[in-house]
Specification:
It contains 14 helices and 5 strands. The chain is mainly alpha-helical. The chain folds into 2 domains: 218 residues, Rossmann fold (3-Layer(aba) Sandwich); 84 residues, Tyrosyl-Transfer RNA Synthetase (Orthogonal Bundle), CATH 1.10.240. The structure holds tryptophan and iron/sulfur cluster.
């Protein structure tokens, strides 16, 4: 019997990269194995607007493509409700109500708010919507009375704020919402091919849809142990991003052998990367097959989203009736 609810979302900012796959999506997929949980996964298209409100041309296409990437990676519509945030207007209603009870100081001291405002200089982020980002995220979570929210570390401040907002609501209007908890993904950190954090905006990502020569090319360009300049230099696999990838894509036996051969300069980086390309190609092949299938059957995807939206909407409506009663509005 499903007694707990899992909920998570992702902003549609383009194709999924392997950082998204290992940092979040695989965790979502793994949770499909738990029969004590119901799962809700959604496209956070309103959240995409908080920073990209001036460039909305790709939004619909990216939302659809992201759902296809999810399905390709193994999200199963029979086990997970897949929906689109902007189709469930109740999120916006709850967002308004939560905005009334959220102190501005809570939002201004949010570390990811401060960090993004400092880092992103090519967009004007001094908007009301951007400051309110975590209030909308809180509405997304508690409207489904979610118990668990699987996310990457970068999202922890938002989940903590959600807990504070839910507690405040319960305190003011009576017990309505469970206090959600995060579920963190434990995975070795994957960097982009240039050694920085894998991010679409850095142009250093390997995408879930990459294949063939393009994929090989990217892996060949990957940053390795900077001290291993010549073929006979001993390497330090623990500091090498290629090694981190091997841990995810190669057999345990190969990884063990590689550690030794790298440390003793028995293998060259070129060969090591070639082996990685082969392993990644094999792992992505069934994903590509499913992605092609859904790309060629867009009505199937539309149907999955329509069914998911209806399931999500029914729950959101029920919660909002309780919320309106609690607030007496
Ligand atoms: N902020 C999340 C991200 O950038 C996306 C998101 C929006 C989310 N609403 C959510 C995640 C609710 C978990 C729960 O990835
Ligand atoms: Fe990295 Fe492989 Fe080169 Fe070792 S051999 S430094 S693990 S690329």
């Amino acid at each position: 019997m499903a007694t707990k609810r899992v909920l998570s979302g992702m902003r549609p900012t383009g194709r999924l990269h392997l950082g998204n796959l290992h940092g979040a999506l695989n965790n979502w997929i793994e949770l499909q194995g738990r029969d004590d949980c119901e799962r809700f996964y959604f496209v956070a298209d309103w959240h995409a607007l908080t920073s990209d409100y001036a460039e909305t041309g790709h939004l619909r296409e990216w939302s659809r493509q992201m759902v296809i990437d999810w399905l390709g990676a193994g999200l199963d519509p029979d086990k997970s409700t897949i929906f689109v945030q902007s189709a469930i207007k109740e999120h916006a209603e709850l967002f308004v109500l939560l905005s009334m009870i959220t102190p501005i100081a809570w939002l201004e001291r949010n570390p990811s708010y401060k960090e993004m405002k400092e880092e992103i200089t090519n967009k004007d982020l001094s908007t009301f919507g951007f400051l309110g980002y975590p209030v909308l995220q809180s509405a997304d979570i508690i409207i489904y009375k979610a118990n668990y929210v699987p996310v990457g570390v970068d999202q922890l401040p938002h989940i903590e704020l959600t807990r504070e907002i839910a507690r405040r609501f319960n305190h003011l209007y009576g017990d309505t919402f469970p206090i959600p908890e995060h579920i963190l993904t434990a995975f070795p950190k994957l960097l982009g091919i240039d050694g920085r954090k894998m991010s679409k905006s850095y142009g250093n990502s390997i995408y879930i849809g990459d294949s063939g020569e393009a994929l090989r090319q990217k892996i060949e360009e990957m940053f390795t142990d900077p001290q291993r300049v010549r073929r006979n230099d001993p390497g330090r696999p623990e500091l090498c991003n290629v090694y981190a990838f091997h841990k995810l894509y190669s057999t345990e036996a190969f990884v063990l052998e590689l550690k030794n051969s790298c440390e003793n300069a028995l293998i060259g980086c070129r060969e090591c990367k070639k082996r990685l390309s082969d392993a990644v190609c094999i792992a992505l092949a069934p994903i590509h097959e499913r992605i092609d299938h859904y790309n060629n059957n867009s009505s199937v995807v539309e149907e999955i989203i329509a069914v998911g939206n209806a399931q999500a909407k029914a729950i959101a409506q029920e919660t909002m009736e309780q919320v309106r009663a609690a607030v007496r509005i």
